[in-house]
């Protein structure tokens, strides 16, 4: 969800103004996904690298996170959206952890859409954590070389309960992955838009879905229609 700071700068305001105005885009994305039958929507809300931003901005982001979770829980239940998270939640401020835990518990029975917040998350952090877990099990004699398969590695990821993403939407025209779901996006379709996240509305979401639906997903294979058998 990129472009909040540039959006605020274009309005002559501080960066946190952009973050506050990005909440509507979150609502639009979640509601659009639920309406279209998307099963899982993951939003990259705060990366491990974001701690390097100015303290004032980080503090404001944490306060905004708490306030948003508290205010949106009722809407999540109304739309039958279950809230979950990935990332090192233990490093977040205690009030953020508490609000998140309460919201997850209050929405746990919803089954229309799973909304996953990636908080204090990065792909390299996740893979590193998984490898440490695997090494510990190997040292304890609980893991052998033949046990290490792609399926096993996936089971160590925070996303083990979800399917790999089919579509990754990147706003603000950035042409990079930014350390997001590095293991999981091996065959994910990418959609890059110049729209800044605060301006990303339902129409923008629908455009991304339509673009995705027009693509052929080969997963490294060759479709039979591309190479018809030669005539005898």
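Sequence proposed for the structure above (232 residues):
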């Amino acid at each position: 969800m990129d472009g909040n700071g540039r959006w605020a700068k274009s309005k002559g305001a501080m960066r946190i103004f952009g973050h506050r105005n990005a909440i509507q885009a979150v609502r639009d994305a979640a509601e659009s996904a639920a309406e279209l039958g998307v099963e899982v929507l993951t939003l990259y809300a705060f990366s491990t690298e974001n701690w390097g931003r100015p303290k004032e901005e980080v503090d404001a982001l944490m306060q905004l996170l708490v306030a948003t979770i508290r205010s949106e829980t009722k809407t999540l239940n109304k739309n039958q959206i279950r809230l979950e998270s990935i990332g090192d939640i233990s490093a977040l401020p205690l009030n953020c952890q508490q609000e998140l835990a309460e919201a997850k518990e209050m929405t746990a029975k919803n089954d229309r859409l799973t909304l996953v917040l990636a908080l204090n998350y990065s792909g390299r952090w996740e893979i590193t954590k998984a490898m440490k877990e695997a090494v510990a099990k190997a040292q304890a004699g609980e893991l052998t070389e033949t046990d290490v398969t792609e399926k096993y590695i996936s089971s160590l990821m925070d996303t083990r309960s979800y399917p790999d993403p089919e579509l990754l939407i990147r706003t603000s025209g950035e042409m990079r992955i930014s350390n997001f779901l590095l293991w999981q996006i091996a065959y994910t379709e990418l959609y890059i838009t110049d729209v800044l996240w605060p301006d990303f509305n339902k129409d923008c979401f629908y455009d991304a879905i339509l673009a995705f639906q027009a693509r052929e997903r080969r997963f490294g294979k060759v479709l039979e229609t591309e190479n018809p058998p030669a005539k005898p």
